[in-house]
């Protein structure tokens, strides 16, 4: 059982997986890395633009920001994994095996994250965005929160003009479709009669999430 089998013969991979004891280490690594690689890619992509946090917030102790960042980077992947696996468990009654399958289906998103990371290094974001502290001096009497919101809109507009955004969209779409394909075969190995309905429900959920 290896990644190559997962790529070319997912039905064989998940059938072999169902005959082995449940292990959640690698599935969890897939879930976390799929999210973290895209976060890291964002910071690499925007390396030539001003730092996105205003000075008022960046004055908070580094220990606080480090803790908040780690907490956020861990919580969101775990919450999404929990919901994803929970829906599979609800429909298939496969217990912890549901979260194992949910984790392995994130392999395509991990692969796309590696690709996005490489492209971010080759195509850094460009544009004329003045640092927030300079922007703040243009209207010193306006509260910094309102100014930051305006500056963030200009920052976002600059990012939307980059070709990298379209590349990310299609790569994430490809990875999502591939993940759903793996999900179908993963659930089919657990509960063959539930494979189509489970994939349909989660596909609808992914579609709604991506379009929000």
Explain this structure to me?
- With 212 residues, the protein is mainly alpha-helical.
- 77% of the residues lie in helices and 0% in strands.
- The protein is elongated, with a radius of gyration of 21 Å.
- The model has no long low-confidence stretch (mean pLDDT 84).
Task: Give, in order, the helices and strands.
Answer: HHHHHHHHHHH
Average pLDDT: 84
Helix content: over 70%
Beta-strand level of the residues, as a percent range?
under 5%
Which ranges are low-confidence, i.e. pLDDT below 50, for 5 or more consecutive residues?
none
Number of strands: 0
Tell me about the biggest sheet?
A: none
Count of DSSP H/I helices: 11
What is the general shape? elongated
Q: What would you call the quaternary organization?
A: single chain
Gyration radius over CA? 21 Å
Q: How would you classify the helix and strand content by structural class?
A: mainly alpha
Distance between the termini: 37 Å
Helices and strands, with pairings:
Elements: H1 3-8, H2 10-18, H3 25-45, H4 55-58, H5 62-92, H6 96-104, H7 107-122, H8 132-136, H9 144-160, H10 163-190, H11 195-211
Helix pairs in contact: 2-10, 3-5, 3-6, 3-7, 5-6, 6-10, 7-10, 10-11
């Amino acid at each position: 059982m290896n990644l190559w089998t997962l790529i070319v013969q997912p039905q064989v991979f998940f059938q072999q997986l169902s005959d082995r004891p449940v292990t959640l280490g690698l599935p969890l690594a897939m879930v976390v890395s799929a999210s973290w690689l895209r976060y890291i890619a964002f910071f690499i992509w925007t390396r030539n633009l001003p730092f996105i946090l205003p000075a008022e917030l960046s004055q908070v102790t580094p220990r606080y920001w480090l803790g908040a960042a780690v907490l956020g980077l861990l919580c969101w992947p775990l919450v999404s994994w929990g919901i994803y696996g929970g829906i599979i468990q609800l429909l298939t009654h496969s217990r912890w095996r549901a979260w194992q399958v949910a984790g392995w289906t994130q392999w395509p998103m991990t692969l796309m994250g590696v690709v996005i990371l490489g492209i971010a290094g080759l195509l850094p974001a460009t544009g004329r965005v003045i640092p927030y502290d300079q922007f703040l001096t243009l209207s010193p009497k306006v509260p910094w929160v309102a100014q930051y919101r305006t500056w963030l809109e200009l920052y976002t507009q600059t990012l939307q003009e980059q070709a990298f955004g379209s590349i990310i969209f299609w790569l994430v779409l490809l990875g999502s479709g591939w993940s759903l394909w793996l999900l179908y075969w993963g659930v089919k190995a657990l509960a063959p009669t539930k494979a189509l309905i489970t994939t349909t429900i989660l596909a609808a959920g992914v579609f709604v999430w991506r379009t929000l």
